[in-house]
Amino acid sequence: MGRFSIPTKTLGKNLRELFSEGIDTRGLLVVFKKELADHFSSYRFVILFALIAMVSLISTYMTGISLREELEGIAKPKLVFLMLFTRGSLSLAWFVAFLFPLIGIVLGFDSINREISTGTMSKLVSQPIFRDSIINGKFLAGITTIAIMLVSIVLVISGLGLRVLGVVPGIEEVWRIIIYLIISIIYVSFWLGIALLSSIVFRNIATSALASIAIWVFFFFFTLIGPATLANAVAPVSQAGSDSEAIIRHAQIQEGVRLSSPMGLYSDATATVMNPMQKTTKSLVLMGPMERMLSSRFQNPLPIGQSILVVWPYIVSLIAITLVCFGFSYGVFMRQEIRSV
């Protein structure tokens, strides 16, 4: 039996043709540029972004003033720059966790059904553009807009912090801020995927907006009051005192309920990344005599590599739910009948 061989040049040419036919890069780029221009020219996006940026800057300025007063007399303060993003009840970390989902919702709640209702979607699919390039371009444009917005706010806050505090961040602090940005972009992209899915499932624009906002409101209040309420109902702990098993069960239920929310995942991940002194995401840690002795002796900040290892499951979970949400949107859109309403 003779050997069968394929010339290398022919195989490479066939692979290039298959790749070029499977991915419509030109159509993807066209949709991406068009959506990006629409986002930055939208009045509702500009107003919402300006409002969040203004409140973030005011909160950061107040935090910087209080930190500067506390740092008087300290020669070389360490790990102070990160407090600009996490300290205070109205910090940037709090805004991104609870209010920045509105940015993702605004970018995606009418991205599909608006074009269907106006008739532009039927014209778009009639062009030599693959259908998957439409939804991929819209999602990538939304992620790019979110990334530009978050990077801009962080850079402005960093410049304001340099001006107010007079402290230059170290290399590790810069890397922690970069990782915080990456996690934040993934988190807001999840809400973009929720809004995109609502825009595909519901033909009415108002209905898709209400559905996306309802999910945001549910997780907002669920993250704030849900863990404590459910833990008190399932495993109550009396104020007079309870045994250790009841306290442990109460803490485990509270932590499990909090981690079932994307806001809880994001808050725990970013709190550990932006606070080097925080060595775990758990609210209750059992420690014996030896662990207490080691903890009292080793109070150094956690290296950035170790912080990433601690929050790595949370980052993977955020990436997974974002991809699952976009995967549902992709599947429904590819099977949806496109016609003008």
Can you characterise this structure?
By secondary structure, the protein is mainly alpha-helical. It has a domain at 25-233 and 318-334. It is built from 15 helices and no strands. The protein has helices at 8-22, 25-40, 43-70, 83-86, 92-98, 101-108, 113-118, 120-125, 131-165, 171-201, 205-234, 244-259, 262-274, 289-297, 304-334. Helix 10 (171-201) packs antiparallel against helix 13, helix 11 runs antiparallel to helix 12 and helix 13 (262-274) runs antiparallel to helix 15 (304-334). The longest helix is centred in the middle third of the chain and has 35 residues, at 131-165. Mean pLDDT is 79; it is low at 1-21 and 290-298.
Structure described in brief:
The protein has 341 residues and is an all-alpha fold. The protein has a domain at 25-233 and 318-334.
Task: Identify the notable features of this structure and list them briefly.
single chain, 341 residues, mainly alpha, 15 helices, 75% helix, globular, disordered N terminus
> What does the average pLDDT come to?
79
Structural class: mainly alpha
Span between termini:
62 Å
Give the overall shape: globular
| Main sheet: strands, sense, barrel | none
Low-confidence stretches: 1-21, 290-298
What proportion of the residues is helical, as a percent range?
Answer: over 70%
Q: Name the beta content range.
A: under 5%
Number of strands: 0
Number of helices: 15
Order of helices and strands: HHHHHHHHHHHHHHH
Whole-number radius of gyration?
24 Å
